Amino acid sequence: MSESLKIAVLVKEVPDTYGDRHLDLETGLADRGASDAVLDEIGGRAVEVAVSYAEANEGTEVVAVTMGPESATKALREALAIGADSAVHVSDEALAGADLGLTAEVLAAAVERLDVDLVLAGNQSTDGLGGVLPAMLAELLGRPHATNLDAIEIAGDGITGTRASDFGAMTLSTPLPAVASITDRLPDARFPSFKGNSAAKKKPLETLTAADLGVAPENPEAPRSILISVAARPPREGGVKITDEGDGGAKIAEFLDQNRLIGEAS
Fold this sequence. Notes:
The protein is α/β, with parallel strands linked by helices. It is built from 7 helices and 12 strands.
C-alpha cells in the first residue's frame, strides 16, 4: 500500500460548457452572467483522481484550491461533496481579470502555504484554454512537473503517467513533491451523493486575499499584460457549393489548390 500524502487539487468556476458563452467587448473578459457557473469538468476529474487515491490510502488529505469571485465557493463545495477534505478560496476583487502570470503567482503562494506533496490540476480550463498554468506553477514552486497525462499512478514517493505524443504514448515519472496535470481521458468525477453534499457543508473552507498570501495584485499603472483589441466572433457563413457537371473532380482540386490544401507531388 502506498504512503499517505497531502494533495492540493486546483479547481475553477467556469461558465457552463453547454450554455452560451460571451465576452464582454469592453473589458475582454468572459461575461460571467451570460450562463450558469459550474465546476470545470476537468477540475472535477482531477478531484476524482485525488479522492480515489485517498480512499485506498488512509491518512491521505485532499485540499481543493481555487482563485475566483465569491461565487466560486459553489465550485469548491462541489469538490468537497465529491470527497475533498477541505478547501481554500483565494477571493479578492483586486485579482479580477488576472492574467496567467498573476494567477500562477497567487496559486503558487496558496499551495506553498499548504505544504503539499502533490499539486494536481486539469491540463487546461474550458474558459481560458491557456494550457500552461500547471507548468508555470511548477516553475514558481521549483518542483518537477508531469503535464497532459492521459493516465496517472500516484505512489508515496512519486508519480508515473502516460502522455500522448506524435510518436505514440510517452511514459513520464517524477519524484515528489511535484506538479501534475491530467487530460479528459481520466474518468469523470463521481456524482455527489446526498451524504456527500451534507458533509461538504461541514468541511473547512478557508478564504484568503492576495494580501494574506503576500502577493501584490495588478498595478493599473504598470499592468503585466495589455489587452490590445477584442471582437465578437463573426457569424458562420455558408461553405462553397460545387455542382458536378462532369467536371466536379477538377473543381474540387482547384478549390483545394486555391486554399493551399494540396501541394505539388514530389
